[in-house]
């Protein structure tokens, strides 16, 4: 089982990034998936969740209206489109399968001018 995040980087406040999570080794289309993040000195927190076929999503209040979670089961990939980024969004972002509890290694997002 492998989950590999990519797409992180340094962006100015108000900018956008698109994170990807490439999955392998399990039946991706049968699993709900989530994005989490962990800022320095803080606990890991849930950012967004999507059901197995993408019919339902959940967002933390702090990102609602700015972030969009999606998935392409044909490509075994989940995405997180992040718009209107703020300094408070700076964190390591992780993808996680809800069933099975598999985690990726994380990708750093830094929002700074």
Number of helices: 0
Strand content: over 45%
Order of helices and strands: EEEEEEEEEE
Low-confidence stretches: none
Mean pLDDT reading: 97
End-to-end distance: 37 Å
Radius of gyration, in Å, reads 13 Å
Give the overall shape, derived from the CA principal axes: globular
Provide a descriptive summary of the structure in words:
With 113 residues, the protein is mainly β. The chain contains no helices and ten strands. The protein has strands at 2-6, 9-11, 17-24, 33-38, 45-50, 57-59, 67-72, 77-82, 91-97, 107-111. A hairpin with a 6-residue loop joins strand 5 and strand 6.
Question: Short description, anyone?
Answer:
Helix content is 0%, strand content 49%. By secondary structure, the chain is mainly β.
Defining traits:
single chain, 113 residues, mainly beta, six-stranded mixed beta sheet, four-stranded antiparallel beta sheet, 10 strands, globular
Strand and helix layout:
Elements: E1 2-6, E2 9-11, E3 17-24, E4 33-38, E5 45-50, E6 57-59, E7 67-72, E8 77-82, E9 91-97, E10 107-111
Parallel strand pairs: 2-10
Antiparallel strand pairs: 1-3, 3-8, 4-5, 4-9, 5-6, 7-8, 9-10
């Amino acid at each position: 089982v492998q989950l590999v995040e990519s797409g992180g980087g340094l962006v100015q406040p108000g900018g956008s990034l698109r994170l990807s999570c490439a999955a392998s080794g399990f039946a991706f289309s049968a699993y709900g998936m989530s994005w989490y993040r962990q800022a320095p000195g803080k606990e890991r927190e849930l950012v967004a969740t999507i059901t197995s076929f993408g019919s339902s999503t959940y967002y933390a209040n702090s990102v609602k209206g700015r972030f969009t979670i999606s998935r392409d089961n044909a490509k075994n990939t989940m995405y997180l489109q992040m718009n209107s980024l703020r300094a408070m969004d700076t964190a390591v972002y992780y993808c996680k399968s809800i069933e099975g509890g598999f985690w990726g290694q994380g990708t750093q997002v830094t929002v700074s001018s």
